[in-house]
Write a structure and sequence with these properties.
about 190 residues, alpha+beta, 6-stranded antiparallel sheet, 4 helices, 8 strands, elongated
Length: about 190
């Protein structure tokens, strides 16, 4: 009976680990001084600045990044995208001087496979806007090269070249001159 239970638990664990769940992480919020600041370019620069060194990918600006401004209360498929920027209109929370343009919320999409997601319909509140959602802008992303592994691979390559150089020098010494003759004479 125990074998059956262990087998069932093992199969369920394997099944749950193999199911690729979509990971979405809200990682930053920023107030806007003016509603005119909710543009593709500004959204890109802000998400890039907030995401810098936090994630293994960086957003890419194509100039034709999708922007949703209607039907924001239904799931948006995030397949193929790495970051989302959500704009909320000015609300009743936050400092009105710094919140005249509403606020931006930044999301990291961990798995770019099919991932339908409905963003919160009101802003986070507190120091930021608690107004209604007005737009969602999606950005693709690329992996950031890992500096540590690059240095490690370069070091291994240089060590390999140094070892090859020593081997070639040693081989030249063995092949030339009296060492070979003395070995043959004895």
């Amino acid at each position: 009976m125990k074998i059956f239970i262990y087998t069932a638990v093992g199969l369920l664990a394997a099944l749950s680990l193999s199911a690729r769940a979509c990971t979405i992480l809200e990682f930053g919020t920023e107030n806007l001084l003016s509603p005119d600041q909710n543009t593709l370019e500004i959204n890109f620069h802000e998400v890039k600045a907030f995401a810098a060194t936090r994630f293994p990918t960086e957003p890419i600006f194509t100039g034709s990044d999708p922007r949703f401004e209607t039907d924001l209360n239904v799931p948006i498929d995030l397949a193929g995208f790495g970051y989302a920027v959500v704009h909320y209109a000015p609300g009743t929370s936050g400092n009105p001087t710094f919140n005249q343009g509403g606020s931006l919320d930044f999301y990291f999409v961990g798995d770019p496979s099919s991932c339908p997601f409905t963003f919160p319909q009101t802003g986070p509140g507190g120091r930021f806007s608690n107004g209604r959602i007005t737009s969602v802008t999606l950005f693709t992303s690329v992996l950031i090269p890992d500096g540590g592994s690059t240095v490690m691979l370069s070091t291994i390559a240089l060590c390999g070249l140094a070892m090859l150089r020593c081997f070639v020098k040693r081989q030249k010494r063995i092949d030339s001159g009296p060492y070979v003759l003395s070995n043959l004479a004895s």
